[in-house]
Amino acid sequence: MSVTVEEREPATMTDTALVDVENVGITFQTRKNTVEALREVDLKVNQGDFVALVGPSGCGKSTLLRSMAGIIQPTTGTVSLRGEEIEGPRQDVGFVFQRPALLPWRDVQRNIMLQAEMRGMDKNQAKARCEELLELTSLTGFKKSLPHELSGGMQQRAALCRALLHSPEILLMDEPFGALDALTREHLNSELQKLWNSTNMTVVLVTHSVAEAVYLATRVVVMGSRPGHIIEEFDVDLPRERDYEATMADPEFHRVAHGVRELLGGAHGNH
Amino acid sequence: MSTAITAPKQSKEPGAKPRRKKPSKVAAGSLSAMYPVAFMVIVFAVWWGVTSAGIAPAYILPSPADTWAAMTDNAAYLAQHTWVTTWETLIGFAIAIVVGIAVAVAMVYNKTMERTFYPIILFAQVVPKIAIAPLFIVWLGFGPQPKILVAVLMAFFPIVIAGISGLRAVDPEALELTSIMGSSRWKVFTKVRFPAALPELLGGLKVAATLAVTGAVVGEFVGANAGLGYVILQANGNIDTAMLFAALIIMSLMGVLLFMILDVVERLSIPWHASHRNKDA
Asked: Which residues of A, range 100-139, sit inside 8 Å of B by Cβ?
């Protein structure tokens, strides 16, 4: 397990968060009207955190995630990474979508290598890193397979490898397992948990599933809609290394999950 | 349906993958070639029967033998004119590909371009080419240029339309992904957009290829001293129907051949596409 995130000096100011969302408001201009997606959002993500954003559809959680990736600029306020305002796509961010978004004409390996080609990384280094990630996600035997030959779970694992190829410090995931069946989803949750636990990586995950959020995250951020805002943050007091079943049975899991569901108004079923 | 349930056509051994790869492909290929061949044989048989029974005089319907004789007796003459039409077609087609793709790219990337040129292109498409061909003769003379121009005009439209819808068919998430990767527009085009457009584009090229042949011949009809269109006009003037048939057959074969070449290109360049994946299913 040598998915190491490049070791860096801890930020000069000790309490500078890795990602700092300050008083962010985002409005979209559509043809007919303006939509306020986010209002006055403050969020700090520290190095090594696993933050889950949960909330009803249209609460702006995906927008918030995209502002961290630098592909949506806040209308007001700032999003900074290591104290530096994000003004565009960044080298140190990895992104996973709900759909794997693999290019159908490229095999798994070349899909992962797209990241290297687009960012102009050293080819040999990227290749070696790719092998490592394939190994880690048990895809080594499928590196020459085309996406349509893989199951949904395997496709999403390939997408994860692609997102990690350039060893980003922060991994942003937008409902990455939302389109998968329940069993595959559980399985990938455990894998992601292990991956995060064995690295120094920071993860921000958008999800509809309260169980997924609490199982994976060190902090669960509950958002509300119209306009999108943060209602409350829950710290999850569970060890970093988490067994799926043991965690599901843990009183702390239920405390947080219950608290989150309460805020979401029970509108979100029993995920 | 019910027979299929009681007696499945093809029993598979348990655990067999539904999609076994290579071996069936060849058999299926030669089998699928059998039907059109059989059909052609029937057409020839009927043709031969009608002419040998003396139902139609030779100047209306020449027999297959007469047509064959016209072809072999005038092989050098036909080859020379086929060559001319082939060149006009290929050059016209090539120009149409380059210009068509360039215009499609410009219109997809630039709204103003699209608003400006789309109506004009549509208008140019609606005008019957045969009606403007004389004008090209006036402008460009009796050489190959006006024929090439008509071929370009005919082949251009399906390429532009296919190019535009192909370039738009790219997965929006793939585009978002590239913007997260901070990719340059050129890289996004060459690595994502263009390959994504290939299936539709190649479909358009196939249509365009056959139209390019038509375009070249239409150009020749209006004013030429060489090419298959010229041969047809000459044969018509001499009431040499056998020769006319020979030219027609060569012309059709040209279009079919060009189409088949593109079909091979398609198989080789987009083996990943669903249209090929399911072909032998």
From this structure: 101, 103-105, 114-115, 117-119
Place of tokens 């060149």: B87
Yes or no: say if B151 and B212 are a contact pair by the CB < 8 Å rule: yes
**Mutation choice for A interface testing from B21, B111, B170, B177 by most A CBs within 10 A:** B177
Tokens of A61: 């959680």
Domains of chain B: 81-271 (1.10.3720.10)
Instruction: Find where tokens 């239409």 sit.
Output: B218
Rama region for A138: left / alpha / beta (φ>0; ψ in -120 to 50; rest): left
Provide the angle, in degrees to the nearest 10, between the axes of the packed helices B145-168 and B129-140: 130
Question: Burial, A22: exposed, middle or buried (Cβ in 10 Å; 0-12, 13-18, 19+)?
Answer: middle
Burial bucket for residue B53 (CB in 10 Å: 0-12, 13-18, 19+): exposed
B175 to chain A: closest CA residue: A101
Domains of chain A: 19-92+169-263 (3.40.50.300), 104-167 (no CATH)
Residues 6 or more apart whose CB falls under 8 angstroms from that of B11 comprise none
Query: Beta-carbon neighbour count of residue A96 at 10 Å?
Result: 25
Answer yes or no: are the C-beta atoms of B96 and B158 closer than 8 Å: no
Residue A106 reports pLDDT greater than 80: yes
pLDDT digits (tens, 9 = 90+) for B83-128: 999 999 999 999 999 999 999 999 999 888 888 888 888 888 888 8
List of chain B residues with pLDDT < 70: 1-31, 274-281
Helix A152-164 and helix A108-119: axis angle, to 10°? 30
ipTM: 0.77
